[in-house]
Amino acid sequence: MKKKSKTNTKQRIIDTAIDLFNKNGIQNITSRHIATEMGISYGNLDYHYKNKEALLLAIYKQMRDEMSDSYTSADPTTGSFEQIHRLLLHLESFQYKFRFFNLDVLEISRSYPKINRLLKNTFRIRKEQMADMLKQAIADGFFIKSTEENIGQLLLSIRIIITFWLSQEELLSDAESKKNDSGMSGHIWQLLLPYMTENGQLLYDSLVAKSAVSN
């Protein structure tokens, strides 16, 4: 019973920290702010997470675990193209759920060596996983064969969009442009559209229409 209570407290700390970091920015929130928000003592919080790096490391591991399913899970009822579609939609919602991390990723990476190493390793793994998805979609006939020659550049462009999407949105976008914007996943699809076969374009149009109805 005590172990369960301890686990719940650790998760509550993580959830509260994410909320405060998203609202106020990582530099403006200390462990004491989090403890006060939770109504617990600073010593109690310090018992679970000794410093901000330990807390951010726990948050990032949760983030990584959450996204792993979208990169690795395969639904036998859908194909490779739809898996890419679901991944991009999840990535977009993921950006907003952990807004603070994506806005301050460079500062976090520079300030906390353990997270920096984990980030680099995760980026490498995600790059390989996304490449495998694209290669499968090529094999399934949704992208033209020559797409494989450009996978490296496409993956780099996709990573740049994902990493800096929220930053450019916060700095440059106004209400009118947001209203007409197709979102992060839409911009990534724009990169991929020229490489689609006729079957790929038909399936893409179907998936976009389905998403529009569900929204």
Give an account of the 3D structure.
- This protein has helices at 2-24, 31-38, 42-48, 52-72, 80-97, 99-103, 105-111, 113-139, 151-172, 175-179, 183-192, 198-214.
- With 215 residues, it is mainly α.
- Helix content is 79%, strand content 0%.
- Helix 5 (80-97) packs antiparallel against helix 8 (113-139) and helix 7 packs across helix 8 (113-139).
Average pLDDT figure: 88
Helix count, DSSP H or I runs of 4 or more residues: 12
Strand content: under 5%
Portion in helices? over 70%
Q: Write down the secondary-structure element order.
A: HHHHHHHHHHHH
Query: Tally of extended strands?
Result: 0
Structural class per helix/strand content? mainly alpha
Whole-angstrom Rg: 20 Å
Uncertain spans = none
Main sheet attributes: strand count, strand direction, barrel closure: none
Distance between the termini: 42 Å
Shape: elongated
Write a compact overview of the structure shown:
The chain has 215 residues and is an all-alpha fold. The protein has helices at residues 2-24, 31-38, 42-48, 52-72, 80-97, 99-103, 105-111, 113-139, 151-172, 175-179, 183-192, 198-214. Residues 7-67 form the HTH tetR-type domain.
Descriptive tags:
single chain, about 220 residues, mainly alpha, 12 helices, about 0% strand, elongated, HTH_TetR, TetR/AcrR family transcriptional regulator, DNA-binding
